[in-house]
Design a protein that fits this description.
This protein is mainly alpha-helical. 74% of the residues lie in helices and 0% in strands. The chain contains ten helices and no strands. It is elongated.
Length: 216
């Protein structure tokens, strides 16, 4: 019988090699964060359409070659920024909706968390308000719309528990997500509107619709 070939054991790294590897990973993380911070600043101040890759590179303080090691174009930078914000929001929103036991708390808590998140970061404010069209296009794509699926599932669960009346969860999810984005942009543009006021408006709007949908 032919003896089974053995996979060579991976040699242990020396402390110096481990330290060097840790420094490389830290450098990669710093470079990526520098590019994202530059993109957030440039897209917010100049606008996504007018901004160029050169603008982002100049703001990051990195070389052109370093930029292309992380991102192929400026669209990928915007996608990464939107995806990062969406990921941070999704976990908080899911926890908030799971604890809601009435239609009012389900609707109001979700909108309040979303609008307060926007209000907490002036730079993100500027990014969304100046680039609403580009952000909408990205959010419409399935790969970036994971939050929509989570909202749909949360709506389905609330309907099954009896916390919400029966309605089409997919249609309601699309309506709530679209309204959140549009009202968020309007809130940013109208500086006299607070997150609490925007959330109260959205809550009354959707509670009225839910009442109508609950009628036979």
């Amino acid at each position: 019988m032919t003896p089974m070939a053995r996979t060579p054991a991976t040699p242990d790294l020396t402390p110096e090699q481990e330290a060097a590897g840790g420094r490389r990973e830290a450098t990669k993380e710093r470079n990526r964060e520098a590019i994202l911070a530059a993109g957030l600043e440039v897209f917010g101040s100049t606008g996504y359409g007018e901004a160029t890759i050169r603008d982002v590179i100049r703001s990051s303080g990195l070389s052109t070659g370093t930029f292309y090691n992380y991102f192929p174009d400026k669209e990928s930078v915007l996608r990464a920024l939107v995806d990062r914000s969406a990921t941070q929001l999704r976990s908080v929103l899911s926890e908030t909706r799971a604890s809601a036991t009435t239609p009012e708390t389900f609707v109001s808590s979700g909108f309040r968390v979303f609008f307060e998140y926007l209000a907490s970061d002036p730079t993100l404010f500027s990014l969304l308000s100046r680039n609403a069209g580009a952000v909408r296009q990205i959010l419409d794509e399935p790969i970036m719309g994971a939050g929509m699926g989570e909202l749909t599932r949360d709506l389905e669960a609330a309907v099954e528990r009896g916390d919400l009346p029966g309605f089409n969860p997919e249609l309601m999810s699309a309506a709530m997500a679209g309204a959140a984005l549009e009202l968020g942009v309007a809130m940013l543009e109208n500086k006299s509107t607070s997150p609490q006021q925007a959330a109260e408006f959205a809550t009354k709007l959707f509670l009225g619709g839910i009442v109508e949908l609950s009628k036979p």
